[in-house]
Amino acid sequence: MPRQREPTFVLFWGPQRDYDHVDVEGILETVVGYTGSKDEQAHSPTYQNVQDFAEAMRVTFDPSKISYEELLTMMFSFATPADPRFAGTQYRFAIFYHTQEQKALAEKAVEARGRLGSWVAVEPASDFYRAEEYHQKYIDKQTMSMFI
Fold first, then answer.
1. Among 7, 1, 48, residue whose Cα is nearest residue 30
2. Domains along the chain with CATH numbers
3. What does the alpha-carbon distance between residue 29 and residue 31 come to, in Å, rounded to a whole number?
4. Beta-carbon neighbour count of residue 116 at 10 Å?
5. How far apart, in Å, are the Cα atoms of 33 and each of 16, 58, 67, 110, 115?
């Protein structure tokens, strides 16, 4: 079994489809969910009750085939950060790091984006709650239903 890693990015439906369909080896799984709550009492978020969580995507990848830096580059190509004054907690743009190495690489990637990077938070990873099943691969499901 290859060594696996799981970065967490604040992305949801659209970028999940993009990561799932990009033609590169090493992305093993994507899961959308909720993370990043600052409230220690908050738990079990849902789409109808997000609380102060952010919509997020966890990417499981094989670092022998694709690097964390490549995943960061893809993230910025799949989604454009929004001014946090208008994005709110649920839609804020953030990278949640799991290791100090991920933190350093995320900060470097954010800094390289200038003003857009200033709208990206780099925060320690916290509990990740898988989103409801109807949110998993949502755009693929919606696209398929158009042809049924």
1. 7
2. 8-42+51-143 (3.30.1060.10)
3. 7
4. 15
5. 11, 8, 22, 22, 27
Q: How many CA atoms lie within 13 A of 95 on its CB side?
A: 31
97 and 124 in contact (C-beta within 8 Å)? yes
Mean of pLDDT over the chain = 83
Using the structure block, give the residue that is written with the tokens 């158009």.
146
Q: 121-139 burial, b for 16+ CB within 10 Å, e for fewer? A: bbbebeebbebeeebbbbb
Q: What is the pLDDT of residues 128-139, one digit of tens each?
A: 999 887 777 766
Query: What's the CA gap between 121 and 30, in Å, rounded?
Result: 21
* Distance separating alpha carbons of residues 20 and 29, to the nearest angstrom: 8
Residues ≥6 apart with Cβ < 8 Å to 61: 4, 5, 6, 7, 26, 27, 28, 68, 71
pTM for the predicted model, two decimal places: 0.79
